[in-house]
Amino acid sequence: MIKKLLIANRGEIACRAIKTARKLGIQTIAVYSEADRDALHVSLADESYFIGESAPAKSYLNIPKIIEACIKCDADAVYPGYGFLSENEKFVEALDKEGIVFVGPTTHAISVMGDKITSKKMAENAGVNIIPGFIDILQDASHAVALANRIGYPVMLKASKGGGGKGMRIARTDEECREGFERAQSEAIASFGDGTMFVEKFVDQPRHIEIQLIADKHGNCLYLNERECSIQRRHQKVIEEAPSAFIDAETRRAMGEQAVALAHAVNYCSAGTVEFVVDGQRNFYFLEMNTRLQVEHPVTEYITGLDLIELMIKVANDEVLPLSQSDVQCKGWAIESRIYAEDPYRGFVPSIGRLSSFLTPEEGLNVRIDTGVESGSEISMFYDPMIAKLITWDEDRPRAIAQMQNALDNFRVEGVKSNTPFLASLLRHPRFQQARLTTAFIDEEYPSGFAVQIPENADVFVVAVATVHYQHRVRASLISGVLPGHEYTPSSEWVVVGEGLNQNVSVFEENGHYCVNLNDRNYIFESSPVIAHSIIRTKINGESYTFQIDRDGNRYSMYSNGYELCLSVYTRNEARCMELMPEKTVVDMSNFVVSPMPGLLISLSVEEGQRVETGEEIAVIEAMKMENILRAEKDGRVKKVFLQEGATVEPDQIIVEFSTEN
Amino acid sequence: MQEILKELDRRRDLAKLGGGEKRIEAQHRRGKLTARERIELLLDENSFEEWDIYVEHRCTDFGMGDNRIPGDGVVTGYGMINGRLVFVYSQDFTVFGGSLSEAHAEKICKVMDHAMKVGAPIIGISDSGGARIQEGVASLGGYAEVFQRNVMASGVVPQISMIMGPCAGGAVYSPAITDFIFMIQDTSYMFVTGPDVVKTVTHEIVTAEELGGAKTHTGKSGVADLAFENDVDAINRLRRFFDFLPLNNRSDVPERPTQDPADRLEKSLDSIIPANPNKPYDMKAVIGKIVDESDFFEIQSDYAKNIIIGFARMEGSTVGIVANQPLVLAGCLDIQSSIKAARFVRFCDAFSIPLITFVDVPGFMPGTAQEYGGIIKHGAKLLYAYAECTVPKITVITRKAYGGAYDVMASKHLRGDVNLAWPTAEIAVMGAKGAVEIIFRQDLDDAEKIERRTEEYKEKFANPFNASRRGYIDDVIQPSKTRKRICRSLVMLKTKQLENPWRKHGNIPL
User: Fold this and answer.
1) Same domain flag for A318 and A423
2) Confidence at residue A615, expressed as pLDDT on a 0 to 100 scale
3) Which of A223, A265, A314, B296 has its Cα between 20 and 30 A from that of B474?
4) Torsion, Cα of A130, A131, A136, A142 (10° steps)
């Protein structure tokens, strides 16, 4: 029986595991690196153990150190989470040697499934559908190009140990194939210490649908329905749901049975996931099997009512699974949004720093939050920028989406940028709502990236900002020291300016709510307290809206449902005077290539005097384990290079200056 | 009677036009509002009571006899900002370039005298080419009359200067005496001598903007407190700023309702101090989390950034905030920051505004530049200001409080009323390494010994408990509870009575 569990991970999954362990009466031990001294998972665990420097290789990937932690803390089992050592057979071997239980599958299953080529062979033998391709290991870039030509473009270059979008590249031309091979391989070496690469056909119009499995050591294996994870950005999942709107009962059963067959073939015994790519005709092909619990497991937990970590622990205790296939439920609809600390408006570059404020919606029947951070946490450059998972559930898909939209409006991250506006934009996208998804959804619908979204009709924003401002003005009138008879009464007439708008609004208070007139239309505005609150919940003409508001005097930044508007509220007189004010000139930065994020300048492809064309690579910056290529935004000549390769860069630091003349 | 009333309207309308349509247009083209437009924006709607609209100059030399415009280049009177009384004067650049004549000065003096009598703040809006040269010494006399009143009003009623155009020559000394100077980016400048004279005398070639623009005075010279984007933005923010100020030196600080609970816990403060003592953090983030509604009105934000000063509210009442900024020069005290904070402390003391001081100071800045510049005398200004001041003083030591700088920053010994420390506080003569290298000089070659001694010193002083044992710190508190503790202390100190001995005035090391 497991009595003391060491959690060899960090962040939300470590916190998540601690919760289940506590429920089962198991003592928990957290391990932490230098950067995680004050992390949430450390304070939640019963005990904690320091395992080294911040870089993962020195801490969370450091097998001897974690084994040492197990021994020192008397752990009888280890829960690995995802990433880090979760699929590392050497780690499992080391634990076996010490007689410590690994809450996960056997080394055999890990090693077979951890290798994309052997896993494919194994799947094929087990009768699982396979994508056409070559299973040769690529020697070099030229070999990749040769094989790619035999398969026919587009192809996918994949690192054998790859995962989570790292070490993967799509190529549509020989040149892309060559470049993709190099980059994917160097990423794979950096992230997984293994540069083995292969190439396969890239399926067009694909959906990513995966089957959750749970197997015990007594030959029982169940499939816990599917998850659809088609919404991906650079192969990184963004929104996941269960079940999939695309899968009928028959396909579900077929996929489930194939997945179970594969699990049996490797004597699988824990939670695992078989990932499939599904084409428009519901043909499904095996992609890979993940021999760990996945990030998106909560959606499965929601629709099945199971606690997967609890089941994993029971299985690790040699218990028999407490249910059979016919007991597996598929109830309602669950959606998960991954909240990343990244700037969606600047190409999703990681955003690091201190979370000065972290406000989450209330958890309950319909809303679940898995997170490893809290207000005051530090988002470091060493780890994955995912800071939380927001999961909502309801009876059906449209309602689950609505729950998610509302929850996101109540999610507020300050100090670092987050992708919540992007998530909100995805959720309200008609194609998403109609479930017409493919893994290319984001590339197709946001071909030039993501920009600030301004609603076509901003009336509710104008109504809200005018009313909020009016309430602040009313409060200003309540100051002490007013000369009797000279009380200030805020005007009811306001002008809202910004984002191309210039609208007259009237605001009156009446019986505890506000009557607002805009464009000859009347609105009734009711809200939660406005002053001293950055999130306000309103009803405008009976409909619910949640706004996030930043105020600086009469200037407001209003956020709701992924839309973001900067609006100023003026009196009529001020608005008239504003028209006389000169426009301030903005400094033209288009001749500079600046670092979009803090990181390391690992390569610089241009020198002074060189001519460059739009789209040409200028420099590569590594941050948060990702290589980010900076490209020329226009044609020109390099006037000055400010930094050398190997330099540490700050956000907005100038790397190269162009001159536009030839 | 009808005729008479009509005549009144005619005269009034004429006066209101100032220098006429053409000049008003020119003023607008420069991106500036007129004197009256500014007043209208500044004061509550219809609250302006104008005086001396028919005043004209009395000069007859150089053809001025035929050139009279009612009002004589300045609009004066009183009105309300959110219902509170304020006296204003606003120079009218469309009339004789806003130049100051004897009559013009008399108008300004009149409102200043009234402001003093009734105890209300004065806001002066400068937009003037300088002295009315045609009047000669009469104009100079006018300036001095204003200066004298500025000095008499100092510490009696708040005085605010808005520089919204040129302000050159002797004219600069009126704003210089007032409590706060605000400028407008690109359209205002202040200097004692303009670029032409500078060129002749020192052969320096400099533009008016470089010499005395908003950026120069808010960043380099520290003459101005803040610069605003344009006239409308400036006046809007001035109204906000005004709400923080008491009306005079005998009135209470203004209060207004807030929905921000006094006992709000701010969990994020428990982790704001980095584990590494050499790693900075943003003290403004600390302030923002503690004050009402995160509403902190910082002044001199571009000057001597190693210290932060500004106004905020606690439970709706104004407080003055002084804080070391570890992000800049590690939060060291130097000449500029000492002067900046000293003047602010004295303003708060003069107007009964309680002071909250956040301390993270590694000491005074070393170096010849500082010593030659007179850090001894200038640092003493801050010491003097804190020691002299009698308003409620609450001090929170967040991290370092080293050496003489510990004493200076509103320590218990300078009559700090409530001195709190976070558990991360280190109150010592200096950092552990430096201290050990002096005390155990003989062991300098023995690295191991030195290290052990350093640990020993750290254990003894790198915490708030040694100071607490002596009562220099009233309590060591959880950072997340700082707001609650400050609010409670302020309530307790509301009735604080403390008087300095009678004297004509002290002799602050100027």
Assistant:
1) yes
2) 74
3) B296
4) 180
In a domain, A585, yes or no: no
| Nearest-10 Cα torsion for A242, A243, A245, A251 | 140
- Is pLDDT larger for residue B93 or for residue A660? B93
Catalytic entry in A288, A342, A564, A622: A288
The answer as to whether A115 is a domain residue is no
Which one of A577, A604, A634 terminates a domain? A577
Which residues of A are less than 8 Å from B289 in CB distance? 356
- Cβ separation B232–A482 shorter than 8 A: no
Catalytic residue among B15, B214, B224, B405: B405
- pLDDT tens digits, residue range A400-422? 999 999 999 999 999 999 999 99
Q: Any idea what the Cα angle at residue A84 is, between residues A82 and A86, rounded to 5°?
A: 50
Structural domain contains residue A357: yes
Residue A122: inside a domain:
no
More confident residue, B415 or A121: B415
Give the one of B85, B256, B259 whose C-beta lies nearest to A480's C-beta: B256
Mean pLDDT, all residues of chain A:
91
Task: Specify whether A186 is located in the same domain as A331.
Answer: no
What's the mean pLDDT in B176-182? 98
Of A517, A548, A577, which marks where a domain is finished? Answer: A577
Q: What is the mean pLDDT of residues A83-95?
A: 93
Task: Judge: B31–A582 Cβ closer than 8 Å, yes or no.
Answer: yes
Q: Which helix (H) or strand (E) is A659 found in, with range?
A: strand A654-659
- Kindly report, residue by residue over A434-443, the tens digit of the pLDDT: 999 999 999 9
B contact residues 224-283, partner A, Cβ 8 Å cutoff: 229-232, 236-237, 240, 243, 246-247, 251-252, 254-260, 266-272, 275, 281
Per-residue pLDDT at A186: 86
Same domain, A251 and A176: no
Q: Which one from B71, B79, B142, B169 is the annotated catalytic residue?
A: B169
Q: Is A288 designated active site? A: yes
Kindly report, residue by residue over A578-618, the tens digit of the pLDDT.
999 988 777 677 788 888 777 788 888 888 888 888 778 88
Inter-chain residue contact B268 with A375, CB threshold 8 Å: yes
CA distance B377 to B382: 10
The shortest C-alpha distance from B392 to chain A (Å) reads 20
Counted across chains A and B, CB pairs separated by less than 8 A come out at 113
What is the total count of domains within chain A? 5
What residues of chain A, 459 to 478, have a C-beta less than 8 Å from chain B? 475-478
| CB atoms B259 and A533 under 8 Å | yes
The verdict on pTM exceeding 0.80 is yes
b/e sequence B195-218, b meaning 16+ C-beta within 10 Å: beebeeeeeeeeebbebbbbbbbb
Query: pLDDT-derived band of residue A662, with 50, 70 and 90 as boundaries?
Result: low
Chain A residues touching B228 at Cβ < 8 A:
none
The token pair that represents A456 in the structure block? 């076509």
Q: Does A486 touch chain B (CB under 8 A)?
A: yes
Range of the domain at A620: 592-659
The answer on A500 and A623 residing in a single domain is: no
Query: SS3 for A118?
Result: helix
Model confidence pLDDT, tens digit, residues B289-320: 999 999 999 999 999 999 999 999 999 999 99
Q: Is B363 a catalytic residue?
A: no
Domain boundary assignment for chain B: 2-242, 267-425+463-495, 431-462
B267-425+463-495 topology per CATH: 2-enoyl-CoA Hydratase; Chain A, domain 1 (3.90.226)
**Is the distance from CB of A616 to CB of B267 less than 8 angstroms?**
no
Longest dimension (CA), chain B: 102
Q: Per CATH, which fold does B2-242 belong to?
A: 2-enoyl-CoA Hydratase; Chain A, domain 1 (3.90.226)
